[in-house]
Known about the structure:
By secondary structure, the protein is an alpha/beta fold. It has three domains: 6-384, Alkaline Phosphatase, subunit A (3-Layer(aba) Sandwich), CATH 3.40.720.10; 388-453, Arylsulfatase, C-terminal domain, CATH 3.30.1120; 455-484, no CATH class. The chain is built from twelve helices and 13 strands. The strands form two sheets. Strands 1, 2, 3, 4, 5, 6, 7, 8 and 9 form a nine-stranded mixed β-sheet that branches. The protein has a four-stranded antiparallel β-sheet with strand order 10-11-12-13, covered by helices on one side. Strand 11 and strand 12 (396-401) form a beta hairpin. Helix 6 (173-187) packs parallel to helix 9. The longest helix has 31 residues, at 258-288. The relative contact order is 0.18.
Amino acid sequence: MSARPNLVFLMPDQLRPDFLGCYGAGFVRTPHIDQLAAEGLRYSRAYSTSPVCVPARAQLLTGMNPIRTGVLDNGVWLRPDLAASGIHTWPELLARAGYFTAGIGKMHFYPWDLRHGFQHRVIAEDKRWLYIRDDYYHFLRAHGERKYHGIEHDGYLENRGAIVNRLPWELSVDHFVGQEAVRFIDTYGGEEPFAMMVGFPGPHCPYDPTQQFLDQVDPAQMPPAAPYVEADTAITRQRNIDGNKRWWNQVDYTVFTDAHKRKIRQHYAASVNQIDVEIGAIRAALERRSLLDNTVIIFASDHGDYLGDHNLIGKGQYYEVSCHVPMIVRGGPVGVQDALVELTDVTATLLGFGGGEPVHPLDSRPLPGLGLPGEQQRDIVFGFIGGGQMAFDGRWKLAKYNTGEQHLFDLAHDPLEQHNRIADPAVAGELRRLDDQLTRTLMRSLQESHHPERVYRVDLAQDPIFGKEGWQRPWPRAYGTEYD
Length: 484
């Protein structure tokens, strides 16, 4: 592989690793993703430290944690004067380094047609945003079709969001995204290398595969949902119910039976099958153009999905099924890497392969085991979203929420997170250790989050220019320009 490989970042939305064959799922067919894992490095302990769509994506763009970006929930986005603040996205930095950058599929930007450094964009946004006039909207119109809300499908409410898509596979959004990625590979004629991110809107709800993929999944093989411990998450469960009743979903999960959960899991697995087919087509296009041997492929997801575990649906808490994500890198060493890594480490890894030099300090690190400069293994990962915080050292996980609920789980002996040790005096030392590290990281990030508002870093009292009338405060204060 040359010193400047092509870069392809594949990111399905809301995909948990235990629904992939390469992570041990024997009930789902993912041969193409499994092949990437067999030919690359599969990370067994990768975590989305902000397991909500928009905060996770803001982290990936900037390599900064959500306290520093300010993007802590789905209703917030990066500041419009981002570049003036000295913060540049990885597509911008790779473009500066001589790459042609392409963003295809779901990105979840506000506004939705921002580029954020992508020189080429084909947009197919969230399945829930029906009124966005993106490229997928125009594709459907050209075929006499339109986007459909889940509620326009038979059995949507009764099956808790599990449906058979009204659109044929050829018109489905994940197929559209896959084909547009293939089209880019087949037609790209530039001399410089390319860096392409492919954002699949699935298998995010609604759980809407087409029938031919649904027929390939046996619901009897679906693993059962992790039990619900009411004392741990009673408030969270009620919020989960209330949030899903809103217009975007309109599903009432007050009654959420084992049968509902099995059906949802069947439909989710079928949606994963569909995406696997598209990934196979993207790989085939790289082979057809003789590009595969000089392309680094990174596969990951922004977060997982409860799928009924803990009697919840969606994501947002720091349970394993919400924050544990797949991570595969093809184009370097082969094997399994057990180091603790974060989703946002994809940012530093892309820049490391492409030679993009960050301007602002990153929370992201190059993924270990790839031989990139700056590799450094993590002893602990920290998570932040608007409603919660986490510290996880690979065994002990502390999670604190604005509901007042707090969890301390020992993953070594409690992988399904059923036994909350938060009040157990026998492990009070572990609690204090994690809480201390989490608090210090939070305080440091809070200070760094106000860098654009900074007037000086060390001392301005002896500056004669400041002492004159009419001195103008620099705004925003960009990284690399602070007073010494």
